[in-house]
Write a structure and sequence with these properties.
By secondary structure, the chain is mainly alpha-helical. The chain has 15 helices and four strands. It has a four-stranded antiparallel β-sheet with strand order 2-1-3-4.
Length: about 400
């Protein structure tokens, strides 16, 4: 029977090493777990062969970050295991042993080891700031304090599912316009490089004076052919410079402020930001996070630095830790309806419910704005592309008609 070398930890966190005989690695893992130990690595000895390469190490692939969707899957699975009655250490060990080759293997194993060494889950999560946000860690901390970790994990799942749904709606709203722009641009480039030069040769042979529109078209085509590579380089450099500028605090504030003012776009961006603000703040308050701490977390996760700056200013104006509608109303960044609904929640003492209603309102508004955006953008982009392509066709046809008249055909 094949032999496997393993490293494991005891319930007290002590690291141990040993060997075990088993038919497969999965059976070796089960044998180790049956001894009350938590396996960290399992390596097949030279005489072991379970269908994989000999001596292949059963280790975790190291990474510093995993995707939002993988975090959502991990949270869902951990919530289900805890809700079924499994303790946290065993639940993390169960998830760690699944090993699907993704980036989360190393992180889950690290979380399990931290828990077995006596750390809390929130403390373990804090060691992976690139994966688990401040919002995530704070809610887990609140769940541990209240003894309702499984409930909090389930709320986190619902929260991130809603946020992901909002992002997907915005992305889907821009897919069709982007396709139209790309196809229209490729058509124009093809015309400038391959079609117009052929007509130019014919026009030059005939030697007739060309209309202004045709001369402009030929000049653009010639510039595209002669300086196309330079144009591409300049566009790439400009994109990099603009991208770097937008990443700076000043540039990001300018860009986010511009998005909140652009026709058609501003409705989608603003309603998405307000829905995110209400969902996040409501979730934090519902799980017992103090209002000032919750505002600090929302400031960093709201997704727009202009709105985040207003939350920062309002947080500084809040003195009693509960009244937040007045500072928001004074800033004139949040809409009146939102601040009025916040005020009602403060008066009734049920901020979580008020924020839930606010989130639902702006999520519905987001749906309407997405429909308006796609409905308006489609004809606008079609007209723009039609005008550009039409200019090429008209410029060529005018030259053809002019030459035909000159030849008395």
């Amino acid at each position: 029977m094949p032999t496997y070398n393993y490293t494991a930890r005891t319930r007290s966190g002590e690291k141990i090493q040993g060997t075990v005989e088993a038919t497969t690695k999965r059976a070796a893992l089960a044998d180790i777990e049956s001894k009350g130990q938590i396996p960290v690595t399992v390596t097949a000895s030279s005489d072991a062969d379970d269908g994989s390469a000999k001596g292949k190490s059963f280790t975790w692939r190291r990474t510093n970050k995993i995707s939002t969707r993988e975090v959502l899957i991990f949270t869902t699975e951990l919530s289900d295991l805890l809700a079924s009655g499994m303790n946290l250490g065993n639940a993390l060990n169960c998830l760690a042993n699944r090993q699907d080759g993704s980036g989360k293997d190393a992180i889950i194993a690290s979380l399990r080891d931290e828990i077995m060494s006596g750390s809390s889950l929130s403390e373990a999560l804090e060691k992976h700031p690139n994966t688990f946000s401040t919002l995530y860690v704070s809610m887990i901390n609140a769940g541990e304090a209240s003894g309702a970790l499984a409930v909090v994990l389930n709320r986190l799942v619902l929260h991130f599912e809603r946020i992901q749904a909002v992002k997907e709606k915005v992305i889907m709203a821009l897919v069709y316009p982007l396709i139209v722009m790309v196809m229209g641009g490729l058509t124009l480039v093809f015309s400038m490089i391959f079609v117009v030069p052929k007509f130019q040769m014919v026009f030059e042979e005939l030697g007739e004076t060309l209309p202004l529109s045709t001369r402009i078209l030929i000049a653009i085509s010639k510039g595209t052919v002669d300086y196309g590579l330079l144009i591409i380089i300049l566009m790439v450099v400009a994109s990099v410079l603009i991208g770097n500028f937008v990443k700076t605090p000043k540039g990001k504030r300018w860009w986010h402020g511009t998005l909140l003012k652009m026709p058609l776009i501003k409705g989608v961006i603003a309603s998405g930001v307000y829905a995110n603000f209400a969902r996040t703040l409501g979730t934090l308050l519902e799980n017992g996070v103090p209002v000032l701490n919750a505002l600090g977390i929302v400031e960093r996760t709201v997704g727009n630095v202009v709105v985040g700056g207003e939350i920062h200013n309002a947080r500084e104006r809040v003195t009693d830790g509960t009244t937040i509608s007045a500072p928001f109303a004074a800033g004139e960044v949040f809409p009146v309806m939102l601040t009025d609904m916040l005020s009602i929640g403060e008066q009734t003492g049920d901020m979580s419910t008020a924020l839930t209603h606010i989130a639902q309102r702006y999520e519905n508004e987001l749906d309407r704005n997405v429909i308006i955006l796609t409905t308006a953008l489609e004809p606008i982009l079609i007209v723009v592309v039609a005008l550009l392509v039409g200019f090429v066709a008209v410029a060529i046809l005018m030259a053809v008609f002019n030459l035909t008249n000159g030849l008395n055909v």
